[in-house]
Amino acid sequence: ESDTASEISFQFNKHKKTPSTGSHSSDMASVSSVSGSVLSVYSGDFGSVDAQGTVEFALDYDEKNREFQVHVSQCKDLAVVDEKKGRSDPYVKTYLLPDKARMGKRKTSVKKRTVNPIYNEVLRYKIEKMVLLIQKLNLSVWHNDPLGRNSFLGEIEVDLASWDWSNRKLNWYPLKPRSLSAVNGVDHRGVMNLSIKYVPPGSLGKVCPKNPPSGEVHIWVKDVKDLLQLRPSGVDSFVKCYVLPDTSKKSYQKTRVIKRDSNPVFNHTIVYDGFHTEDLKDACVELTVWDHEKLTNHFLGGIRLGLGTGLSYGISVDWMDSTQEEVAFWQEMMLAANEWIEGLLPLRSL
Q1: Residue 310 and residue 349: Cα distance in Å, rounded?
Q2: Which CATH architecture does the domain made up of 48-182 adopt?
Q3: CATH number, span 190-347
Q4: Which one of 84, 160, 190, 306 is at 20 to 30 Å from 148 when CA atoms are compared?
């Protein structure tokens, strides 16, 4: 399904004793994460009405079905959007932040002509508990305008790591206004659309004495959107890939260059074998996007997929600095063997 593909084979045990000394490993400094929800959560009309009122909901996790459930009961005393007609048509929307395309949004039905809507609906997410606990729930209320932009009525954000999961009762929470100061300060460098898959050792049927079974990590770089344009003629971009701590030529792969396009489609697949399951805790897939020029390439942004522990094979390294969203993406791959995991991840700046 991809335009180009690469396959690389190497053994991680050659790199367990010493940290990487290649210059590439320190090209990206540790930075604060940029929420992937910028493209979706922060779209709408925020200035037309003041947030007010309350929302009643409960949270639960179904261990048997591995399902996160948001029980949205009702809202009270919401703001009136259309003052002339004295009406609001509210609905509730939820995101798991940092947002991923695979998760997406959930929303209730629209209740027309009321500031006290009753929903009694359950919004569901299929997600592993350990992945859920490093995310936040963003629950917001909106007025539905089929002919224009929906109006923001208020929100609440819940840190799921500190949530009391024994509390399954419906409770009331005040709706808060949204602060746009953090969004205005975001250094947005684009978003990478990709999928990854882990094939465990022994599941490929390639067992023989000379070729011991080992796992594979598949990386499918699909496209990148909204790249920075460093010159009027546009950007000539390509993607580099390393599996750290290996910065040798054996680890290095890159896509072809897409010219004069700030939304390049690469459709490039890379397969790294030599992966054992325990290596997934200590390795890190680094994907960086570059603008190609004859004399020098310019860094545009990148992501690092790993557990973000700061350690690799017991050694402290600066490149094991994955954001919460990147960690959740990597963990989801580890938990779903032989399945493609799709993600939409924001590129980080230096």
Answers
A1: 19
A2: Sandwich (2.60)
A3: 2.60.40.150
A4: 190
